[in-house]
Amino acid sequence: MNIKLVARMAWRDVRSGEMGLLLVALLVAVGTVTSISLFVDRLQSALLEESSNFLAADRQISSSRAIPEDFIVQAQQRGLNTAQTLVFPSMVFAGDLNQLVSVKAVDETYPLRGELIVGSEPFQRGAPTDAVPAPGTIWLDSRLFPAMNVALGDSLEVGMAELTIAKVLVAEPDRGGSFFDLGPRLLMNLQDVAATEVVQPGSRLSYRLLLSGDETELESLREALPLKPNFSWISVRESSPRIGRALDRAESFLLLGGLLGVLLAGIAVGLSAHRYAQRHFDHVGVLKTLGATPAQILRGFMSLLLLVGAIAIVMGLLAGSLLHIVIVQLLASLIAVELPMPTVRPFLLGGATGLICALAFAMPAFVHLKNVEPMRVIRRDLGVAPLSRWLSYGAAAAGSLLLLVWYTKDLWLTLWTLLSIVSICVIFGALAWALLKGGRVAGMQAKSGWRLALAGLQRRRMENTAQILIFGVAIMLLLVLVLIRTALIDEWRSQVPEDAANHFVMNIAEDEVEGVRALVRDQATEGEFLFPMIRGRVSQVNDSSAKQWQETVGRQGGGPRLTSERSLTWSVLPPENNAIIAGAWWSADSTAAEVSLEQEYAEDFGLQLGDRLEFDVGGRRVWSTVTSIRSLEWESMTPNFYIILSPGALSDFPATYMTSFFLEPSEKVFLNTLLRKYPTITVIEIDALIAQVQKIVAQVSQAVELVLALVLLSGALVLIASIQASRDTRMAEHGLIRALGGTRALIGGSLTAEFLVLGAFAGVVAVFGAELVVAMLQLQVFELQAEAHPWIWLLGPTAGALIITVVGLAGSRSLIDTPPMNVLRGL
Amino acid sequence: MSRTVVSAEGVEKIVQTSAGQLVILDGIDLEINEGESVAIVGASGSGKTTLLGILAGLDTASSGTVKLLDANLTELDEEARALTRGQHVGFVFQSFQLLASLTALENVMLPVELRGDTLAQSQAQELLEKVGLADRLDHYPRQLSGGEQQRVAIARAFASDPTVLFADEPTGNLDTQTGERICQLLFDLNQEFGTTLIMVTHDLQLAARCSRTIAISGGQIVPSEQATASAL
């Protein structure tokens, strides 16, 4: 067939609605993928940018030694921005008052990402600034002003230098993260460090080289620099595992959402192509009698498909772009970060999705048209040999695999999802078949509407089994997305609840505990724990000294040492978020000296259950036996201990205590009251960090909800396509029944019953499938706890029955309303 | 002497059913010459429609030889049979078989377009005028009556200037009066174009207007009285 004829046929098919559903399905596939990937693409860049604020850079090189000049030269040669910081603890003096502070010295280019917030009065909201403290000046945390009894313009002694207080430091981007960056902050200029003379051999120094710029240049620098063991390279994911994990999971989820959207759209495309082909069997038969050869038919319909595909792709790309702009506008007030311009990838993905969907899902049905027998024109009872299953499922599977792997860049996620769907189809195909067979027996005793429906279901058992599976898989995919979304968001929120403790108090002396707690209870929300803290170190393991033990059994090299002094604690009960993975926790009334070790700590130093450890606590020695190994949730915002001893081992030792509390940002001045009354305690503020984590979680959750909505749209399309696909057969049957005297009520009742049964069966399939897929995804991909969801067991079949019935009846209204004569004339 | 247009020799059609083998045609031998009009008659299920399909190259025989002009249809694949149909054969069907998405004019143009010819539109227009539908060119099949649809189908059948015209119960879906008019039109055009007409029909009056009648019963050719009796 020539191209003009093809174009005319395509236009007529579109105009007459024959091609409508296929066009819409393709358009939705392209539009969904384009808008999701455009949004995800831009949001991912934005989130990464936002997260970079935690580092005040894209990458950092950190060391306890000065950063070699060569590193900076190499970075700058690659067009990267650089900044340097140096953090060290120091005592500062103002008159008779002194205080341990955490000094951060920065150069003029700091920070490379995020911003410094400064104010002119302590405990007030500040404003962003591009500047850093000028040489000779310092900026102080609000809390230091009352603690040192100073005001702006006064001087502080830092080492040998006397520096002027110029501003109140309200926030700095890379503040959060370390529990051991203790004390209130003092920000100064790097040029003044030499004058302080505090940098001496043995000082606790943390040098950082901050880097930002082009991602490939950063990676090239990483590969080019020969980092010695005491230099480490830090990216967002490494520096802040909480954010890294949240980002990873969000990315997986968004991709999963896109993946399911593509699958659903693919099913819709396949179904509408199948229907289109079926409605064109006669058409092809006539063309063949008029001399069209199979090759001409194939060429003609393939050109037609490609033409419609091309129209759908162009329209889909436009629709996707518009949709994404609408989404961005809608969420503009919620998305605090500025979205960078999208890359070309989402458009490529959208276009390729359209093409692959057309070829993999629609093509087999179109190819099948060439096999229509011309004899069908005079012998309508001649069926058409069924479409080769290998061709149709093989093409669909290959297309899905190709698209999904490319889309998610994650072979495992794709394989797990596809494998689950295939297993579910096999198992539930057999089940649906059996149920439909059983339905016939039940139907014999039923009233006429039901009898008609069940007879119909049984007669078209093959088609109905397929339809149950399609409905089931569509509902299942939607359930999977809802369940995973709920699990993810719950998980994120539970990690950082709204009222999570955002301040830690350490170094509380035993006689101060009650006083501090009373004050905290009075003015803030007290945290859930109170840990005794005792400094000590391991001195002996079994019969070896700790040093010998590490040399023979434990980890070598520059890592942590077994003999290092650590914070020990004792506890009657295991802390929350700790899971015993070997041995057993001691009984509450145990007086024995027992010790519980963190899993990685035990592995690093080759320690096992039954080993005996001797601790040196301020010169006093105590032996304990390892009776349990614990795993920790390092992401939780609570203190974690490598070593916990039983009360029998440590409770007699003098200890300081650690607790936590939640404080509203507006009530930060309480810290001064607390510190004035108990000057020796240390307060660690993690409120800024928590606020940042919460913000990111909120943003990611929005994106997740949005993807869910888009995929729901694809799901609805599948339902409509599937009902449309079986419409002609139903139309013919019901036309005949009405001609034979069946009332509209009988047809309506029969259709309702048929859809109710199909929907309920599909719901059962969906629930089984969703539980299975969700469990696998949670365990394999999202690393969450797998759990059952009893609430969907009733909801699935009920919702399935209701949705399919409503959509089905809406799509079949003309079946009831069309006069039987019209139906019969069309046969 | 006029040449043979269609011939069948020992044609059998056997299909497998769940109840076993079903013989639909059982050793059919026939020859139809150029310019002849032949009616194939027989009772329902006698195999006459199957025979028409095989003679026209729409279906294949299980055994035997079928020739259409110079082409041995039994040796051709579907691709080659389609080309032969396109070049030499026209069809008129009981249920008209117009393409619903094409107008009357486009339906008539279709066979010529399929052959790649370019004068399609003027030829088609002319034919539609001949069948009395000059004012219905842009109507879609659903906008036409049964008689009008069959007239479009007849115009389409002659559009490719076929050597042989196969007609399957051409008046079967029409009332007597309309059927009569359609029948007249068919024979007139047949005469004008010098086409060989092979027609399956129940209508004995229609059959009587043909130059020859082939009667089928139980898949075999029988004397026409016998077939007529069983058909009635």
As a percent range, the share of helical residues of chain B equals 25-40%
Shape category of chain B = globular
> What is the count of structural domains of chain A?
4
Beta-strand content bin of chain B: 25-35%
Spatial sequence of strands, sheet with the most strands of chain B: 6-7-8-3-9-10
In terms of quaternary structure, what is this?
A: heterodimer
Summed up, the helix count of chain A is 26
How does the major sheet of chain A shape up? Answer: 6 strands, mixed, barrel
Give the distance, in angstroms, between the N- and C-terminal Cα atoms of chain B. 36 Å
Supply database-style keywords.
heterodimer, A: 827 residues, alpha+beta, 4 domains, six-stranded mixed β-barrel, 18% strand, elongated, B: 232 residues, alpha/beta, Rossmann fold, six-stranded mixed sheet
Protein architecture, described:
The complex is a heterodimer of chains A (827) and B (232). With 827 residues, chain A is of the alpha+beta class. Chain A folds into four domains: 1-54 and 242-409, no CATH class; 58-239, no CATH class; 412-498 and 688-827, no CATH class; 503-685, no CATH class. Helix content of chain A is 54%, strand content 18%. In chain A, the strands form two sheets. In chain A, strands 2-3-9-6-8-7 form a six-stranded mixed β-barrel. In chain A, strands 13-15-20-17-19-18 form a six-stranded mixed barrel. The longest helix of chain A is centred in the first third of the chain and has 39 residues, at 241-279. By secondary structure, chain B is of the alpha/beta class. Chain B has one domain: Rossmann fold. Helix content of chain B is 38%, strand content 28%. Chain B has helices at 48-55, 78-88, 104-115, 120-130, 146-159, 176-193, 204-208, 224-231, and strands at residues 4-17, 20-33, 37-42, 63-68, 71-72, 89-92, 164-168, 196-200, 212-217, 220-222. In chain B, the strands form two sheets. In chain B, strands 6-7-8-3-9-10 form a six-stranded mixed β-sheet, with helices on both faces. In chain B, strands 2-1-4-5 form a four-stranded antiparallel β-sheet. In chain B, helix 3 (104-115) runs parallel beside helix 5 (146-159), helix 4 crosses helix 5 and helix 5 (146-159) packs parallel to helix 6 (176-193). The longest helix of chain B is centred in the last third of the chain and has 18 residues, at 176-193. The relative contact order of chain B is 0.20. The model of chain B has no long low-confidence stretch (mean pLDDT 87). The interface between A and B is medium-sized, with 30 and 35 residues.
